[in-house]
Specification:
Layout (H helix, E strand, L loop, with lengths): L34 H4 L3 H6 L2 H6 L4 H7 L19 H9 L3 H6 L1 H15 L3 E3 L15 E4 L3 E4 L21 H14 L4 E7 L1 H10 L7 H9 L1 H25 L3 E5 L8 H7 L1 H14 L5 E4 L7 H5 L5 E3 L6 H8 L4 E6 L8 H15 L4 E5 L9 H13 L9 H8 L2
Helix pairs in contact: 7-8, 8-11, 9-11, 10-11, 11-13, 16-17
């Protein structure tokens, strides 16, 4: 497979809107408020060299995911394509079926590019869903307007497992095609993001038959049918690993693993029912795609941060209930973080949005931070607030200067 040459992220970062430039005043190694975030670790010093980072053609987001020096934190939003955008709502009127919108190459590309065209984020996530691959391994589903995801035949008994088969990636050709086109369309100016659901989170839908508030069926299955649940999770682990590799080979620069409902488990249960399967995925994917950063997001992850790090991912996605400075202290310097502005801020005055972005960036420190919301953009979010979020984030500099990128990067070295 050949891709058009990617523009250097270094050269694409020059001009900033001067009215928005803000000196963040980060702490140096000597004056370090958040020691964990700045001290270089053996892992980092071994693999990361300034000259390599600066001449690299990787998009800014990939560099930040790896902990390489960057002049500003790259920024994108979860659910940045969707119902809050008028242009999406108009398209959805014409194509009312979610499955049609997310399984037709032209529509996937068009929707994924809507936020790219409007806001120029540093990451362009493919318009898809964590449930999209299910029919390719034997689990049909639908997304209903009010109920959300619906699995017609949930898996709850040994016999139900017979429906499962190895993932048939040909059935997901639209994902591969779209990633390939997106990679060409954004031309190296942003990272193309692929994503999957983690086995536990996917299993909550397959077992419960759809969205749940209580997770009682699957949680009781941990005790009443542990072998059945383990078989299902192992099947999902294999299918999801193959699906990630397919996404990377099709053009994804970086993969988000959403264990959105992992935070519904008590931490010791997460250790048993989610972590080993994610760890296995990370190890299989690393083996095949060693350069692709993996990001793990869990909704409500305050009790899981250190445990998440144990999976071996490159980046921990933080929801907004964890303070960024606390997360940095707890996670140490050898892992990157993503997040974590409360999505509700986008309903507040724009000045409050600006302040919160500055606060989060300052707490995160100059390395290994991808700016994002703590969860997805909420329905009803004003588009102007999203535009403002991106304008402000892209105007910020780690050292306050604007033009000379290599100077900026060298000042960041600690
Ligand atoms: O939100 C998360 O926690 C991220 C993980 C996740 C996704 N889908 C990723 C996604 C989860 C848990 C889902 C399941 C799902 N799918 C739900 C949530 C239901 C519940 O249990 O609470 C819903 C409503 C869907 C259906 C769906 N997926 C719709 C209607 C849309 C369109 C966008 C919107 O929200 O209006 C999606 C798209 C989607 N799901 C994306 C992602 C990463 C799109 C890519 C993006 O722009 O981020």
């Amino acid at each position: 497979m050949s891709f058009s040459p990617l523009t250097s992220a270094c050269s694409s970062l020059g001009v900033k809107s001067s009215s928005l430039i803000v000196q963040l005043g980060f702490h140096t190694a000597e004056n370090n408020k958040f020691p964990g975030a700045f001290v270089s670790s053996p892992k980092r010093t071994k693999t990361k060299k300034f000259s390599i980072a600066c001449s690299s053609t990787d998009p800014l987001l990939v560099k930040a995911a790896r902990g390489d020096p960057v002049s500003r934190p790259p920024t994108w939003m979860m659910r940045q394509a969707g119902r809050y955008m008028a242009v999406y709502r108009k398209l959805a009127e014409k194509h009312p079926s979610f499955r049609e919108r997310s399984e037709t190459t032209d529509l996937i590309v068009e929707i994924s590019l809507q936020p790219w065209e409007a806001f120029r984020p540093d990451g362009v996530i493919i318009f898809s869903d964590i449930l999209t691959p299910l029919p390719a391994f034997g689990v049909p589903f639908d997304i209903e307007e009010v109920r959300g995801p619906v699995i017609q035949s949930p898996i709850r008994f040994e016999d139900d497992l017979k429906a499962l088969h190895p993932i048939d990636l040909e059935k997901l050709h639209f994902v591969g095609e779209s990633l390939k086109i997106l990679r060409r369309e954004v031309g190296g100016h942003a990272a193309v993001l692929g994503f999957v659901g983690a086995p536990w989170t996917i299993a909550t839908y397959i077992v419960e038959g759809g969205t749940t508030r209580t997770y009682t069926t699957i949680k009781s299955m941990c005790h009443t049918a542990p072998n059945l649940l383990r078989t299902l999770l192992s099947h999902l682990t294999k299918a999801i690993s193959e699906y990630i590799i397919y996404q990377v080979e099709s053009g994804a620069h970086c993969i988000q693993i959403f264990d959105s409902w992992g935070g519904q488990l008590p931490p010791d249960m997460w250790e048993q029912w989610s972590k080993p399967y994610i760890t296995e995925i990370v190890s299989v994917v690393r083996n095949k795609c060693p350069k692709t950063p993996l990001v793990l997001y869990i909704n409500g992850n305050g009790g899981l941060l250190e445990r998440m790090k144990g999976t071996g991912v490159d980046v921990i996605g933080l929801d907004w209930t964890v303070d960024m400075a606390d997360a940095r202290k707890r996670l140490g310097s050898d892992i990157s973080v993503q997040g974590n502005v409360d999505p509700a801020y986008l309903f507040s005055p724009l000045s409050a949005v600006t302040k919160e972005i500055q606060r989060v960036i300052k707490c995160a420190g100059p390395r290994g931070h991808i700016l994002n919301l703590g969860h997805g953009v909420l329905v009803g979010t004003p588009e102007e607030a999203v535009a403002h979020f991106f304008d402000v984030s892209k105007s910020l500099n780690h050292d306050g200067s604007s033009q000379n990128h290599s100077m900026e990067e060298s000042k960041l070295l600690v």
